[in-house]
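Recap from last week: sequence in, structure out.
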Amino acid sequence: MTLSPLDRRHLLRLGGGLSILGAAAPFAAQLAAAGSAASQAAPDYRALVCVFLFGGNDSNNTVLATDSDSFGRYFAARNTGDDPIALMPPGTPPTPVGLVSPITGRTVTARSPEAWGGVLPIVPRTPNPIPDGTNASVRTFALHPMLGPLKTLFDADRLAIVANVGTLIRPITKAQYQARTVAFPSNLFSHNDQQSTWQAGASEGARVGWGGRLGDAFLGSNGSNSLFTAISTAGNAVFLSGQSVVQYQMTTAAQPALVINGGSSASLFGSTLAPSRVRSIIQDTSPASFFAADYATVTGRSVSAATTVNSAFTQSAVTSIPAPSAYVNPITGAVENNTLATQLQTVARMIAANSSLGLRRQVFFVSLGGWDNHDVQNTVQPNNLAKVAHALSYFDSVLGSLGGVNMRNAVTTFTASDFSRTFTTNGDGTDHAWGGHHFVMGGSVRGGDIYGQYPTLGVDLGAFRNPDMAGASMVPTTSVDQYAATMGRWLGVSDASLDAIFPNLRNFTPRDLGFLWA
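Predicted structure tokens:
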């Protein structure tokens, strides 16, 4: 097979170097060469960390409006079916398992919302505007009962909520969406397409993501180790693929980087010369086959990168990072592995290692799956939300003293997901929808507040018509472009570059949502 130059370039961009997944790993890294380590961390270091919730988180049960008008319509819509998913009002004490709830009259099990107590009140520092259709003098809010650690961060001004975010091309109303008079993204309720649109601004098949393109903006000024600009602990993600930057993939294993045992040992088959010979064979770029030569280039770059990372990971600032505390499933009581927390531990290690890597800017991608809760939502979503809260609280704590330095102001962490879920229940779960609410965490976050318009709640019923909901889906009032560009500007990307990265950004006002300090 003969590869065209374009195909070869794409192959190399997809597999520019072996990741630190181990010797049998697939391709992963980028064409930018990894040079020698810089002597010290860049003084203006900043990093973005994307926490992607694969499957579509039900944000209607994550951030709730609790004024009586809003909560009444919420409870009526969700307190139905074989396994109702409506959460209990603020201040409701937990009902012990096996007893009858005084609110719903149902016998409580461990997976019953009645067993968890009421939603957790939060008080935004700025009153959220009351939208049309909501009959309340003041809007009040709360978080899911499993998000206690996030309430603590919100109250400490290190966590903000961005309301009703979704993939958009331009602003759109319910009437315009229903009449199809304004353009909107294709395949709105498709997992693969919406994951891609969130990460890359286009449906499945997109090759370049906005995280990678943010990294591109700094490639010329990001030090000699720019190979480590975009790092994933969650496998290949289009989010981190740029025009030049391609992600460097890592695992959460104790061994930080790839090791080719035979080539790195003192001897092989009894010969002290054999290891260097093995390395030269692996890295030989002279074969006539383009594929073999490209593969050798990729492998050689990966071996060099692994040496750099392995060396950086021996620093005390890296090795002293504590492991996450044990995680207990709040529904079953079983101790489980919180993979999101261990991924964030690896991210923290890479940030700590930057004292020798010397990058100015980095973008990270971590993820947690299992959010497609068409069924048994009361079993799965609370556990997943508790994992997010446990992981983010751990990450915030570690960043507070990373190698003895408070790095919270330098790192902004945000959530993303395919889409939210329907406002109504299908009996024991929810189906695919559109706009949803997201968290942003960090020392540079203007926390303790809700940004964007929190929508009117309730499905059309009788004389009531919800201006913000089409069917059972929220029509977004904040675009992914605005959400992302706000973080891009904080990272230091120019307005001109933001317009190139987010072509639809010029359709929206404001461009910057204001949830980050400069």
